[in-house]
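Here is a complete protein record:
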Amino acid sequence: MVVDHGNGIQTWYWHMEANVIVSPGTIVTSESVIGYEGTTGLSTGCHVHFAVNHNGVWENPRAYLP
């Protein structure tokens, strides 16, 4: 799942369960539940792979976390 925050910032979420709660075009807030962690591909347990892309450049997501 990709959330577009505007101004070239996108957050990406991988390995989520297939039954995602939101659909394309849904407006979400920082308190919205967008889905649930899952285990897909070669993962060994439930988790969410979280990434930040700013104007096409992958950035360390730590700078965006509280």
Summary: Strands lie at 2-6, 9-14, 49-54, 57-59. The chain has no helices and four strands. The radius of gyration is 12 Å. The CA atoms of residues 19 and 28 lie 17 Å apart.
